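Chapter review: from sequence to fold.
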Amino acid sequence: MAADLKPTCTQKQALAYIRRYEKAVDREMSKHGGLGSRIRFPTYDLHERALDQATIVKDSLARVELVAGVIDCICGGGMMAPCGFESERIYSILRTSLLDLTAEVQQGLRDKVKTKEFIENDVLAHIHSSWNYVTGDGMQNFAGESLGNWTALCDEIRNAIEKQLTSQEMKVAECERAKSEVEAAKLQLTQRVKEVASAKRTLAAREREERSAMKKVQEAEQKLQALEPTPETPEAGPMKKRAKVPTKGQGTMKRPARAAKS
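The token string follows.
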């Protein structure tokens, strides 16, 4: 299964997670000859873990993508949820994420046209059609009970994205956004401190390994030196007399006689 996402996850990273999650679900569905009683629990464990990611991620658009991915997977699997699966979380997490997304549009943080198009085409348009196995009435969906008022949710989101904030509401929103930015910065700082501490521990471990390896090399060299034969010293023989080298003025050659003056 894909690794857990970080709070700073982006929409692109959320989509990559969904692709890995879908492959993990497909692997579970193909096990045991597709026997539902054996694949139901591990499959819904994957669904639950993916929903958990949507509660960790801060980006509202990424959260919507994660919940939508879970709904797609459940509808594609066509398998009833086991006892203990908190199916109502799908409705509550999706609603909260969509409201956060529309609030960002109201505050001017996201492009209204693009965000509205995404919400309509990628979410609301599916609620009463392709997502009916999740959003349908009780005893008709995967959970055997209604998860929420989906029609009211669609109306609420459409109204929210068109709402214009008053100056006071804008100030409150800006204050909340500043608080969120502070919390996000603190969270990122905590993460970096943990990463630095982990890197220091790793470095210390590698330095210990290096010292241990150097010690082993020295021990091996000493062992090799002890095993190598000592070169034999040649025996000293009788010393020969060195030939006397004639010095200047002590040679045996006679100087030629000078020619007589005429």
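Two observations follow directly from the output. The chain is about 65% helix and 0% strand. Residues 138 and 144 are 5 Å apart (CA to CA).
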